[in-house]
Amino acid sequence: MPWSLNSVDVTVRKIIRPDHLEHSVHRRLIVPSALAASLLLAVPASAAEGTVGAPGVGDPYYPASGNGGYDVSHYDLRLKYQPSTDLLEGTATILATTTQELSRFNLDFGLNVSEVRVNGKKAGHVKNGEQELEITPAAPLAKGKAVSVVVRYAGKPSEVEINGWTSWVRTPDGAVAAQEPESAAWWFPSNDHPLDKATYDISVSVPDGTQAISNGTLQSQSSKLGWTRFNWRSSKPQATYLTTLAVGKFDITTDTTSDGLPVVNAYSKDLGANAGAARASIERSAEVAEWLTEVFGPYPFDALGGYSPNVTSGFALETQTRPFYSPKQFANGANVSVVVHELAHQWYGDSVSLKGWKDIWINEGFARYSQWLWSEKEGEGTAQELADYTYALHPADDAFWKVKPGDPGPDNQFGAAVYDRGALALQALRNELGDETFFALLKGWPAEHAYGNASVSDFVAYAERVSGKPLAAFFDTWLFRPTRPEAPAAAGTHALHATGQPARPASWKKIAATDSVHDHR
Predict the structure, then answer these.
(1) 270 and 176, same domain (yes or no)
(2) Which of 188, 307, 336, 519 ranks highest by number of CB atoms within 10 Å?
(3) For 124-134, how does the pLDDT look when each residue is reduced to its tens digit (9 = 90+)?
(4) pTM to 2 decimals?
């Protein structure tokens, strides 16, 4: 099936434009109370309240994301993909522990399922809506017990729409699964929320001459009867949306860091004029990660790299250990700044993941600020100069200040204010605490919460504890008030120049380009 540029463009617009975020936000019909009561009465005794796993984890931004009643520890995915037809066949084995007695539970998934087994026994299964796979085991599961769930499935992911769009994008020679806040439901069943992180083994068979790129370390590769199988492993907890798959024809470079970490970078063989700039940027990943260890502490994972497939979208994504980069990010030449941004997420967003999607500042504010620190290091504008310039760009009546980075709402979750106002808050905090305490915070936070989840309120409490200062009012001003701080100098940024407009730092254009990259979700 040829790749339809028109259909891809429509999908990209739905994902990139903030005014289309409702496609992935309002994911459940609101049921009138009377109808809800009648439905409740119709539920059989075996599925009584307290034994059915919830169809969501309770995230107010994405009510249907994730599921209740169990905690996943490991995903084992055995896949076969044919690029020419977009047919994906798979068997997913999910290891979990129940957190309540379960007569029924859900997985988030969009493809057609042929069989489900729970603890080796056939289980009932039915699709409820576009993405809820309801599973009824042969017998209720006791609380606190280890459970294995095997799901066999097949389908064409690009033809599956959930809330009007797809996270699976076909390319001229394959396909890519990389998207935020959701991408898993198009290619494997899961508990699809960052609160339930797990380890992964991902084994993918593709036609000879084609590669399959995923997270972590490549454990093995073998060919048989015209198919090549790639076996990837992620040994540290990983959120579902950070799990990626790219199938296509790539030029792959491998190396090791000075600390012995394997580095795998992959480039589509058809990147056109952007190929050189993409390589000149992504090949510096090891250098960037080494510098980031000075800022954030030890690198948290056992692999490193990045990949750039031949896609028409314009965003980049911090997929764990192996970020995804659209070739468009390199249309104006090398862009190491976006590499800094995505690799900073390995600490802030990947190792320490958000508790709820309202906590997105923990991801994006810190990743943006890492770009400002890189600019400072490279002599292209200090973080303070970038803060001054950012502040001056937005007058008091600018809608920019109406977005609260600490809880921006789903429609503004990936808007520029979360990134830039979020970074302004960090520069203000640096000025408030001084460099010694501030940089101790930047290192201490990912160490304290490594491989777990944390919220904005957790960070506020941590900053107060480490600094010994009351900071609630400070964070309220910068993260939660929908107004521009009245006194820039007192709030942590310098007063404006006499012209009323600070000079634009040399790094500004590259950093600002990342806004359009990340406003897709």
Answers:
(1) no
(2) 188
(3) 999 999 999 99
(4) 0.88
